[in-house]
Amino acid sequence: MLTRANASVQQQNLSHIISENLGQILDRGRVMAIAAEGWFNGNPAETLGHLSSMAAADRIFLRIALYDQTSRRVYTSSPAQDSPEFTTAVWALLSTSAQEGTNHLRLAPLSPSSEHAWQIPLLIPVNGNHNTPRGVLLVVLDLGYFLQLYRHIDMGRSGVIQVLTADAMVVAEARPEGLVLQNGARRAGVSLQPGVHAGALQGDLFQDGRTYLSSFRQPESRPFTVVVSRDMQEILTAHSAIRSRLFAGLAVLTAFFAAVTFWVARGIQRQGGLVEALARSNEKIQLLIDQLEEEKRRAVMLAAHDHLTGLPNRRMFNELLASHLLQAKRNRRHYALMYLDLDRFKSVNDTLGHHVGDLLLQAVSARLRAGLRESDIVARLGGDEFAVLVTGLERMDDIAAVAGKLVEQLSLPYEGLDGHAIQTSPSIGVAVFPRDGQDIGALSRHADAAMYQSKRSGRGRYTFYDAVRKPADARFLEQRLPKAIAEHELVLHFQPKVRLCDYQLVGFEALVRWQHPEFGLIYPNDFIPLAESTGAIVELGNWVAQACCQQLASWQAEGLKVVPIAFNVSAMQLLDEELPLRVAGMLATHGVAAGSLEVEITETCLVESMDVAVKVLDALEKLGVYIALDDFGSGFSSLGYVRTLPIHCIKIDRSFINDIRNSPDDAVIVTSIITLAHNLKMRVVAEGVERLDQLIHLKTAGCDEVQGYFFSRPVPADAAREFLLQPAMSPA
After folding, report:
1. CA–CA distance from 378 to each of 340, 368, 435 (Å)?
2. Helix 610-623 crosses helix 579-590 at what angle (to 10 degrees)?
3. Is 148 exposed, middle or buried (0-12, 13-18, 19+ CB in 10 A)?
4. 505 or 61: whose pLDDT is higher?
5. What is the CA 133 to chain-centroid distance, rounded?
6. CA quadruple 503, 505, 510, 515: dihedral positive or negative?
7. Does a cis peptide bond (omega within 30 degrees of 0) precede residue 84?
8. Up-side HSE of residue 254: CA atoms within 13 Å toward CB?
9. Please, are residues 121 and 140 in contact by the beta-carbon 8 Å criterion?
10. Neighbours of 575 (CB within 10 A)
11. CA distance 540 to 533
């Protein structure tokens, strides 16, 4: 059935192609009829030329002739005698076209002469204006030439191509042995139903005792039907041959697979014992692998952990510390590194023996693990020295609470150490990230320095690095500071100011840092008082102003939209009447607008000479520089300053912000300051915002801007540049 279906499709395609090609030829005849209209429109010579050239260009056309309305022949491409039947057909076509208004072509009576057997005469109406018949064009087709075009198609030994008239009379027939003359004298065996223009039939079409499969197609408005037929026996013969070959191939494959199956079964039987032996061998190998993995795990454990306490050793702790510092840079929580050692541990070893000292170290490590969270890291660095990394705390105060808790727990007596009760205490040094360092080296040095300060201060306590570094380093830093300014060891960090109405970045506060080559990053609380006491504060302040202008110019050169940068001015600078001129020169040198700078002053700056300070600030305001009063509310005469000085902005001191939610007094003071500033047409900035509840309270109270760790710590210039690229800073 598959071969029969394929043959039917092939025959349908062939009949479609032949009918379409024949239809195209008839369409060219209609084109000739359109060209012939010129004969009746007064252009006989031009029409004759068109018809002659069109007939000569197409070999399928043997002859053309033109008849007028009286069926008189007015032009012919070759002389020939018209039969009476032909004249009658011409007259009938003219009459029908005039009555019905149709222009369908018709088949003229076929010539009985064998000489004209393959000549198919077609009559095509020639219309004039308003589709009225003016004449008839005769087109004689060489149907034999047309069918010869398909002689290369392989239709087998029984293939037949027939061209039929509308009443199923055979006009021409092509077989493998050649063309068969018909002259329309025989009716085809195909029975065509009216209105059916394509399809397939099966039957004894040629009355020769054989069954044929036929496909036919009759295009609409055309007087021919193309039929393609083939003997069913021949079609099925090809299918039978293919089926025989398939059966033979399947038989061979079946025998082959049977043989293979037999030998595989024999092989499996022989290999059964080998598989069992291999399984036993694999079990032994897997056991060895498991043993090696366990040894490897133990080796890694020993390499990364202290053998006595089981805590991470120094190398492992540094790896964990580096990983947590990377995480700390991406969030706003607090991290602290604590170094601690046991007071008078050496005397325990010397008097009670090392085995008691080992028991004490194990007891200390157990208390450390019990007193900290699972997220915190405890390590033994060597001897009686331990390290603790406290991670992800909400508040700075929590660090002190953890350190105090460790001092308290580790100071309790240790009972049952080989029959001994030992009393000892820890000395703890605390370095806070990122305040006391942003890398492992700086944090470790500072925590270690703080730990030794705890020992010098009486032991059994904890000390923050910021509280102990100044006495130890003050004299050295005082001598080194002028050289640090000259050799550009100072850097600026920038803390963003955020507008509360839309959380847009509206400014930075520039905070100076000392990038010491030995001690790392030193914060201003450690060297600003030294600069004020030695007089270097003026030179330092000039460097800060110059650095702010330079940074603004750099961002402008990159095409960034800059925001104002605020910097602090000391009391000694406000006594310098040349300060406005220097600032103006810096702005001109770097091409920076004065409105891009904001000067922050504190009440303590105005104590020595109020008159000079007012004069300097007035000059700065005339330049276009904004003035802000910092730490508002922490002094004794703030309202007087607000009334007399050219102040554009008030910054609320962080001491009022810390507990604004729980302290009604602080909340009232903050609200009053905001109301006062707004009535005086001043902006209000709240400092030290670290929590969401503080932010919500300030926004409800009408505060204009905030700055603090909640949005960002002070960051280097490259990180501040990223804020300029994405100025929106939505709260977490």
Report:
1. 11, 7, 21
2. 20
3. middle
4. 505
5. 72
6. positive
7. no
8. 6
9. yes
10. 15
11. 12
The two tokens of residue 382 are 């060597």
Question: Token pair for residue 679?
Answer: 């009535």
Amino acid code (one letter) for 216: F
CA distance 254 to 264: 15
Nearest CA among 54, 53, 133 for reference residue 92: 133
Residue 567 pairs in a beta bridge with 599
Q: Which of 194-208, 224-238, 405-419 has the lowest mean pLDDT?
A: 194-208
Q: What is the DSSP letter of 129?
A: G
* Longest alpha-carbon distance in the chain: 151
Structural tokens at position 512: 């100076």
Closest CA to 436 of 449, 426, 452: 449
Q: Which amino acid is at 599?
A: V
Top-ranked range on mean pLDDT: pick from 90-104, 430-444, 493-507, 707-721:
493-507
Cα–Cα distance measured from residue 521 to residue 543, given in angstroms and rounded to the nearest whole number: 18
Distance CA 594, CA 166 (A): 100
110: tokens are: 């076929």
Strand duo 426-433 + 461-464: pairing: parallel
Residue 7 and residue 13: Cα distance in Å, rounded?
10
DSSP H or E segment with residue 454: helix 440-456
What is the token pair recorded at 641? 């300053």
Q: Which tokens sit at 500?
A: 């509360």
The whole-number pLDDT of residue 468 equals 42
Which of 675, 653, 561 has its CA nearest to residue 602?
A: 653
pLDDT band for 185, please (50, 70, 90 cuts): low
> Among residues 349, 48, 374, 4, which one has the least CA distance to residue 211?
4
Quick count: other Cβ atoms within 10 Å of Cβ 43? 13
The highest-confidence range among 50-59, 161-170, 621-630, by mean pLDDT, is: 621-630
**Core vs surface per residue 262-291: b (16+ CB within 10 A) or e:** eeeeeeeeeeeeeeeeeeeeeeeeeeeeee
Cβ contacts of 441 within 8 Å, gap of 6 or more: 520
Instruction: Outline where DSSP puts E strands in 404-562.
Output: 414-417, 420-422, 426-433, 461-464, 490-499, 504-516, 520-522
**pLDDT at 546 exceeding the cut of 70:** yes
Radius of gyration of the chain (CA): 54
Cα gap 125→404, rounded to integer Å: 117
Per-residue pLDDT tens digits for 481-499: 888 888 888 999 999 999 9
**Distance (Å, whole) CA 678 – CA 416:** 68
203: left (phi over 0), alpha (psi -120 to 50) or beta: left
Span between the terminal Cα atoms of the chain, in Å:
74
Number of Cβ atoms within 10 Å of the Cβ of 83? 13
In 305-425, which residue ranges form alpha helices assigned H by DSSP?
314-328, 345-352, 354-371, 396-410
Report which of residues 335 and 46 the model is more confident about.
Answer: 335
In this structure, are residues 168 and 225 in contact, taking their beta carbons and an 8 Å threshold?
Answer: yes
Please name the residues in contact with 56: beta carbons below 8 A apart, sequence gap of 6 or more: none
Are 335 and 432 spatial neighbours (Cβ–Cβ below 8 Å)? yes
Nearest residue to 393 (alpha-carbon basis) of 407, 379, 409, 372: 372
Query: How many residues in the chain?
Result: 732
SS3 category, 660: coil
CA 555 centroid distance within chain = 29
Mean pLDDT for 117-131 is 74
Structure-token pair, residue 17: 């192609």
Q: Which residues of 11-40 are buried (b: 16+ CB within 10 A; e: fewer)?
A: bbebbbebbeebbebbeebbebbebbbbbb
**Sheet harboring 334-342: ordered strands across?**
377-382, 385-393, 334-342, 426-433, 461-464
Helix (H) or strand (E) holding 160: strand 160-164
Strand partners, 380: 386
